[in-house]
Amino acid sequence: MFSNAVIQIGFYSLIVTLVSVPLGLYMARVFAGEHTFLDPVLLPVERLIYRLCGVQPATEQTWVEYTVSMLFFSVIGMVLLYALERLQYFLPLNPQSFAGVEPGLAFNTAASFTTNTNWQAYSGESTMSYLTQMAGLAFHNFVSAAAGLAIAIAVIRGFVQHGGRTLGNFWYDLVRSTLWVLLPICVIFALVLVWQGVPQNLSPYTPVKTIEKGTQSIAQGPVASQIAIKQLGTNGGGFFNANSAHPFENPTPLTNFLEVLAIFAIGAGLPHTFGKMAGDRRQGWALYAAMGLLFLGAVVVCTWAEQSGNPQFASMGINQTASAQQSGGNMEGKEVRFGIVNSAIWATATTDASNGSVDAMHDSFTPLGGLVPLFNLHLGEVVFGGVGTGLAGMIVMAVLTVFIAGLMVGRTPEYLGKKIQAREMKLAMLYILVFAAVILLPTASAVVNKNALSSIANPGPHGFSEILYAFSSGAANNGSAFAGLNANTMFYNCLIGVVMLFGRFGTMIPVLAIAGSLVEKKAAPVSAGTFPTNGILFVILLAAVVLIVGALTFFASWALGPIVEHLAMMGGKLY
């Protein structure tokens, strides 16, 4: 089984790398306004959109103007999605006649899809009409991902441009992200999914007779189009409650591989976009290498933990050894058709990126196996991360890294020739502190609230992990869950909704402020005292800083949940 795991993890990592380079270079051309093969088709559409919306794409914006545009767009989108959910009963394309979504859940869902979180405290096939799924949720899958990608491009400009005040134009970046990057790939991807058996129709649900003479309703609908963008845009919100563990969302080994590949595709490509726009592709490879190193470490631990199984079963005489007759290890909550390694790869990738889709239930992982997704969330999802937001977060960590390196040698830190000074460090620390606060403070409030505790299905350390994971997932704009927590209550719907908003915009604003500060600075020439940020030493130091910041911030909470649960499992006591 070891060789099987090495082959699968190695093959996945290789394909991600091969896809990331051309995609990253292509995105650099798109946002630089250079010619691409899609221009003859898309340029007229782009000009029509600007004309209809009254946008002047050539007008450059300061970081404040860029941020205001992003916030304005997000607020309007959230309000419209909330209204669509509440009024869906009176609107067309609702063959199941679903009622309007209740207020708390509608707020939570609107905040979720606006922030690219796609946390779902509901069952999609029994709650949302086709119109809400398409015009509401799938639409936000595109534009929330496009907004994140726009932020990343603005941050890159802050580092690579010199002596100006502007970061580009949000509306130009938003439209280009949607038309040139997300839409073409998703059209092809959706067609491949349909070919593999994923439904794409507007038919009513199909009633069938079961072998027990009962009646069952088979849900279907416009599934393939939503699955394509949920994966590529690191959204993760599935059409069905079981997400990509459902055979209609993920029917074959090929769809499983393509969907988990799509999770990393754009996030892995953006470091190469950064290197190309910076004029030094080694800078992009350095960020990519640090991200890849963190991913490989996490997926190896998760795979090992799940393949090791539960020692208490071994003491009962249950054989957990892998063989030709059985998979071995911990198969609880996993699809037999995918197995442990594919489940571990998906769980690691979906929480490294802000995707949140699942092909196995994280709640059923072993304590250490479940700690890996939680650990990834607490790193801030900077390991490839969400579309755009992952690179932006990793650049903040790079700024922190060069600052620490500068302290070591007694020199003013620089990144791409830009001096990192007090203002940038204060903003970087604000980014880190906001993220930690919107996880730990709500978790603390939930564990002392009787109504919140009543939602736990598994009291004890695992129940604490379920609450911690829920708020971590919301703050990291991930959307995955431990699933043993009933989050569809007014308390969790409202509080997690607020957490998602702060997790998205409370961290985006400091990052844009850093870019706005640095774009005004001129690059200093490289000297003998310049710390190189494109070599192996920087890669190792950057990965170490990401790990240390996450561990120092959240280790105590891990000790109360997954770690103590693991020790209890090893000691022979079940909770």
Secondary structure elements and their pairing?
Elements: H1 2-31, H2 39-53, H3 63-86, H4 103-114, H5 130-160, H6 170-195, E1 206-209, E2 215-218, H7 223-232, H8 253-278, H9 281-308, H10 311-315, H11 339-352, H12 367-378, H13 389-409, E3 414-415, E4 418-419, H14 422-447, H15 450-453, H16 461-475, H17 490-519, H18 536-571
Antiparallel strand pairs: 1-2, 3-4
Helix pairs in contact: 1-8, 3-4, 3-5, 3-17, 4-17, 5-6, 5-7, 5-8, 5-13, 5-17, 6-7, 7-8, 8-9, 8-11, 9-11, 9-12, 9-18, 11-12, 12-16, 12-18, 13-14, 13-18, 14-16, 14-17, 16-17, 16-18
Task: Please give the number of β-strands.
Answer: 4
SS element count, helices: 18
H/E element sequence: HHHHHHEEHHHHHHHEEHHHHH
Poorly predicted regions are none
Radius of gyration, in Å, reads: 23 Å
Global mean pLDDT: 92
**Any idea what the shape is?**
globular
**Binned strand content:** under 5%
Q: Please state the structural category.
A: mainly alpha
Percent of residues in helices: 55-70%
The largest sheet is: 2 strands, antiparallel
Could you tell me how far the N terminus lies from the C terminus, measured between alpha carbons in angstroms? 30 Å
Q: How are the strands ordered across the major sheet?
A: 1-2
Task: Summarize this structure as a short list of keywords or feature phrases.
2% strand; two-stranded antiparallel ribbon; 63% helix; 575 residues
